[in-house]
Specification:
The protein is α/β, with parallel strands linked by helices. 39% of the residues lie in helices and 13% in strands. It has two domains: 6-44 and 288-387, Aspartate Aminotransferase, domain 1; 63-284, Type I PLP-dependent aspartate aminotransferase-like (Major domain) (Aspartate Aminotransferase, domain 2, 3-Layer(aba) Sandwich). Helix 2 packs across helix 9 (273-284). The N and C termini lie far apart (49 Å).
Length: 388
């Protein structure tokens, strides 16, 4: 048997893709499946964005681009961030990458190593913990609790910092919970971090334009006190229904940016040229489709919360952002993983166990409401029947 690198034993995965594969297999066998597991908008990429990519190909944009992204796109990202968050961003610190996960891995390669600690939201996007442990660093949970609306407690985060802490990851609005962190908690966190000047922060804001009921998005870009140690993660996948385009961006501290860019040169050279022109059109073209998608998600959000709260053994608080509901299922007496499997195999409903997102996810399931209202209602009726 060939000897493989030991670090592979520390690499996790994203269960949503495993569930998707099984759901597709069952569907191919003729079983009726409703997928409320995968986290991607069920809308088409807007036509103007698609046409911009087609035009780019016809115009001959077939070659390599700068490793950090075409200048026009980096300028557009900086302008968009200033418009949304009221903060001037140097385009020279913008790095265009093939999807949000790349930013996560770049950050872990830069800050993670043996003897280091990196703090991550729990329950949180599973690649956080996977990438941390792959880097050799110790993954330290930041508990997100239902009673706090799945927002972190700044006091708890600050109490968890040690001399070995290199990086703290925050995510609002959040996957998998839909939780939104209020400004007061960010204020407390930033104040407390003044005592830890060597600790960097990565703010995952990929759902920053998906908020409901008048909630505000608080970007850590708005805190100049931490500008020299902030990594911002954002992109096009969720806002513009562009998951398959594999296009994201990040903003880096000036002294860290060259290291991130060099890693990009080593890993992927540059991002697909036509996709970058599509991203440029997304940011600078009409935004009507964004509002239409958000309106549809909001309507579905209300439906899914209402329906989930009618399932015996379930209780579900209203998510403030993203397109996920995270009901508490403790009343069923069934563990999350077992219930995930039961609902897929017996009811034909794909959902994700909360434990796929960290230890604090036990007792919960993640439902994506990036599906039609009719399918959401039908899925939950199937769950009621399955559990009866």
């Amino acid at each position: 048997m060939r000897k493989l690198a030991e670090r592979l034993n520390h690499l996790g995965t994203e269960t949503a893709f495993s569930v998707l594969a099984r759901a597709n297999q069952l569907a191919a066998e003729g079983k009726s499946i409703i997928n409320l597991g995968i986290g991607q908008p069920d809308f088409r990429t807007p036509d103007n964005i698609v046409e911009a990519a087609v035009k780019a190909l016809h115009d001959g944009h077939h070659g390599y681009t700068p490793a950090n992204g075409i200048p026009a796109l980096r300028d557009a990202v900086a302008a968009n961030l200033e418009k949304r968050h009221g903060v001037a961003v140097d385009p020279g610190r913008v790095l265009v990458v093939p999807g949000g996960k790349v930013t996560m891995f770049l950050a872990m390669m830069i800050f993670g190593e043996e003897s280091a600690e990196i703090m991550f939201p729990d329950p949180g996007f599973p690649i956080y913990q996977s990438a941390i442990e792959f880097s050799g660093a110790k993954a330290v949970s930041i508990p997100l609790r239902e009673e706090n609306g799945f927002a972190f407690s700044a006091e708890e985060v600050l109490a968890g910092i040690t001399e070995r802490t290199r990086l703290i990851i925050v995510n609002s609005p959040a996957n998998p919970t839909g939780g939104v962190v209020p400004r007061a908690e960010f204020d407390k966190l930033v104040r407390g971090l003044q005592a830890w000047p060597d600790v960097a922060i990565m703010s995952d804001e990929i759902y920053s334009e998906m908020l409901y009921d008048g909630r505000e998005h608080v970007s850590l870009l708005q805190y100049p006190e931490i500008a020299d140690r902030l990594i911002l993660l954002d992109g096009w996948s969720k806002t513009y229904a562009m998951t398959g385009w594999r296009l994201g961006y990040s903003v880096w501290p000036k002294d860290v940016f060259p290291h991130a860019e060099k890693l990009c040169v080593n890993i992927h050279s540059c991002v697909n040229a036509a996709a970058q022109y599509a991203g440029l059109e997304a940011l600078t073209g009409p935004q009507d489709a964004v509002g239409e998608m958000l309106k549809a998600f909001d309507e579905r959000r209300k439906v899914i919360v209402r329906e989930l709260n009618q399932v015996p053994g379930f209780r579900c608080i209203e998510p403030g952002g993203a397109f996920y509901a995270f009901p508490n299922i403790e009343g069923t007496g069934v563990k999350a993983q077992a219930l995930q499997e039961k609902l897929l195999e017996e009811a034909g409903v794909a959902v994700i166990a909360g434990t796929s997102f960290g230890g604090f996810g036990e007792g919960y399931l993640r439902f994506s409401y990036a599906n039609s209202t009719e399918n959401i209602i039908e899925a939950i009726n199937r769950i009621k029947t399955c559990l009866a």
